[in-house]
Structure formats: C-alpha cells, structure tokens
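Worked Example 4.2. Consider the chain below.
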Amino acid sequence: MILLDGKKTANDIKNEIAVKVANLVAGGGKKPHLAAILVGGDGASETYVNAKVKACNKVGFDSTLVRFNANVSEKKLLAEVKKINDNSDIDGLIVQLPLPAHIDELKVTEAINPIKDVDGFHPANIGRMVLNLPTYLPATPAGILELLDRYKIETSGKHCVVIGRSHIVGAPMSILMARNNNPGNCTVTLTHSRTKNLKEITKTADILIVALGKAEFVTADMVKDGVCIIDVGITRVKSDKTKSGWKLLGDVAFDEVSKKSSFITPVPGGVGPMTIAMLLKNTLVSTDKLLY
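Applying the procedure from the previous section yields the following structure tokens:
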C-alpha cells in the first residue's frame, strides 16, 4: 500500500509556483493577486480562508480578504463582487461557501467574472470543462488529478467509481475521469444516495473516489484487493484520545480499507492540501488572461 501524500505533494507544487512567481516579478510582471470574500463566522470557512491567505503569502501572491457579517444583504455582497470584477489589479476571486440561507449562492457564483473564477464554479467554466476546453478546473477535482498524475497511477481503461454527485466534487470528477486525457480515459460509474446495490458496484472499482461526507462509510467489504482509494470526505468527531477532544475522519474506514488498497489518501493530509495548491495554480494561470 502506497500512501498518497497530499501534504508533501501540495508543498512541492507551492514551491514550484513560488519559483514561477519570482521569475515573473523579476521579468517585470505583476504578482498574482487573489481576493477572497468571507461571509459570517463559520469555523470551517474561517479555517479554509485563512489557510488560503497563508498559502498566498508563501508563494509570493498578493491577497485581499473581504469580510462581511452573516446578515449582509445579497445586494451588498453582489456589489462587492462587481467591485472586485472591475479591479484590474485583482486576478482571481473566490467567495467562500456555504453562504447564509438568505443569499442565493448560484446568483453570487454567476456574478463572478469567469476570467477571475479561480474556484472553477461559474457555469461558463463548468461548460468549458465538459467540452475539454482550457479553463479553471474546480480545485478539489484538479487536486485529485494532480495526485494521480504525480504518483503515476494508471487510469486508462480502468473502472472508476465515484460516490457522491455534488457540483463541487462528484459530478466534475466523473467528467474529468472519463475525458480522453491523462489522467482519464476511465469507464466511470457515478453513484449517489439513490444508487441500488452500491456494494456490488464499488467492489468492481479499480479507482474509488469517495465524496459523501459520511464518516467511515466505505468499509473493507466494499472494495476489492488492489483498489486505489481517493477519500475526499472530512468529518470532525469527538475523541478522548486527542488533546483537542476532536479528530478528523474520512469517508473511508482507513485502517481496514488500506490493507486492501494499492494506493490510498489519508485524512487529514490527502486531498485537502491539494485543493489549496490547485487554487493557487488557477490564480497563477489567471494572471495571463489567456483562457478565453
């Protein structure tokens, strides 16, 4: 079993980006500039956004963080998005999700200029992804592709099963793994909450990508020997064995499933760090303004 070390791989990517930024600036170019909008004080969102700002500093990007209270009006938020869209100094914009219930997430996503949509969530960028045109790939799926590529995991002709059909991970992942590309060229089965005989399907998977949000959902009896496991889930549960009183679990029962796996991502330290690395990579690309 080989552990797919997302933390190390993400650090390698950040170091590569830092060199490119230094060369860009040395050649008279501008530093890439990422803006993030955070609404409310959700703990997980705070953690994610702070990690993104820290990562920007590490690779030499400029960054701007705009904070709003949870009761901010949709109109005011959309006005801020337009302001950043119109600011030529800012190359990339992310609005941290989820947003409060009174704000239409789709309306906000569609308001972002697709050229600055480094999260890859705008319908225009999703459409370009489906057509295999140059675009910003959603950061988590892009991070998974990068792990598969850097660990030289063969995907062509393999059966890839995806559990979960979210617009952020599951649905785009199924499209990307089926593309005529490397990594890609898989036969893909997309499963979800209405799928019948799930265990029978997962046991045929050469590559199993799990993005469900249910702690330790996938157990050893659901996979075959030699499977490659990509665990996207992360759930915080109480624990009397840690200093904090909490521990993080993936969607896969790691201890038992890893014994049957050829490759597997840990939680934490697998897909999570890769997501931020790919956001930085998208932001670096955004400085060229050449995608469209």
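The chain has a mean pLDDT of 95. Residues 33 and 62 are 5 Å apart (CA to CA). Compare this with Example 4.1 before moving on.
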